[in-house]
Amino acid sequence: MMNFRAWFQCINGCEARHDLTEVIYRCPSCGDLLEVQHDTDKLKKRSGQEWKDLFSSRYRNHEWPYGSSVWGKKELVCPGVDNENIVSTYEGGTNLFWAERLGRQMGLDELWVKQCGMAHTGSFKDLGMTVLVSMVKQMIADGKKIRAVACASTGDTSAALAAYCAVAGIPAIVFLPRGKVSLTQLIQPITHGVLTLSLDTDFDGCMKIVQEVCQENDIYLANSMNSLRIEGQKTISFELVQQFGWEVPDYVVVPGGNLGNVSAVGKGFKMLLDLGMIDRLPRLVCAQAQQADPLYRSYQTGFKQFEPMQAGKTLASAIQIGDPVSYKKAIRALQAFDGIVEEASESELANAAGRANRTGLLCCPHTAVALSAVEKLAKRGVFKKTDRIVVLSTANGLKFTDFLYKYHTDQLEGIQPDYAFEPIELPADYNAVRDSILKNIAP
Known about the structure:
By secondary structure, the protein is an alpha/beta fold. The chain has a domain of 206 residues: 3-Layer(aba) Sandwich (Rossmann fold), CATH 3.40.50. Helix 11 crosses helix 13 and helix 14 packs across helix 15. The longest helix has 17 residues. It is globular, with a radius of gyration of 22 Å. The N and C termini lie far apart (67 Å).
């Protein structure tokens, strides 16, 4: 059996390598972010077809821990963690939904939605958190002093951290911006008994404080600037091509906030290409809310400059981030993948959700940002009718029932809900019910 290796290394190519059990988030030489590097030469000793056969044999089976769609690719993700220290909820393997009706409305034959919200905690964050918490468990088993794991969050990261730490029995701390997450998201860490700090600031403010707390208190940082998270999230790319019979889509559209997911998706596809499992790359599209769109503004300059901004309030609260920590990684991925950045106004994203949900989806507002971007790019002719386009749906729509309820009851300020729908209140009378039905259905 081959022993595969992985390590932390600076995104700028600084030579120093750091073990994955080292508590380190930035390069000691230049201060920039790190990324996980793999021994590609050793990985290439298996052919692309051999890797595909191995992963197909493991997919959704019950041999621990390989039935997880993350740990089924363990060699390409985090080979150094012992199986007994893996913390898994059988994550991944989420539905790839052919949004046929919605696509036809946009003039597209193949619009697909990767429903990452069909997960243990209801978002794609589980994919990265299983890797990070497993490595923390490994570090503790090896004698490393870690008192707790902490993150700043707009809701979904905190839910994933809370659940995985609860499974592992590891203390966790979450920092949330007060009044800026949905009740459903807030209750998730609370119900897992995790120390929940609701701060009178935005996500960027929470992020600043959590970094300070983790710097010298034996508390491990779980935000996506920790590239262990990216290793789990890159398996979205692995899953997509596996679910398409190892074919590559033409475009992958990703909602962008802190921008770790954009770089993760790019990293996943690049690894598949390097190992001979695919023969081309898709184009990447990053979709941002107009109220928090620093990457879109940078894209307008050809990425010649990037300026953080004060994020405005947006219905897409999970991507209400004006100073994204992973912007360099995201820009590099977009440049390598001939990428596009688009934005959506509050009205556009709200009505994109309303329209999509009429066709059977149940969209969170962040997925709606991506769907709005798809509609715009289709109208501009960027997408061809026959292109295979995949939208990453980042969270379960049931986490955002307050948004959906306010949309359908016309309570979203400044937004005309074009697809609003309300129940009809009637007396319990047959004639009244019959008349209402006949009035409201087609003859």
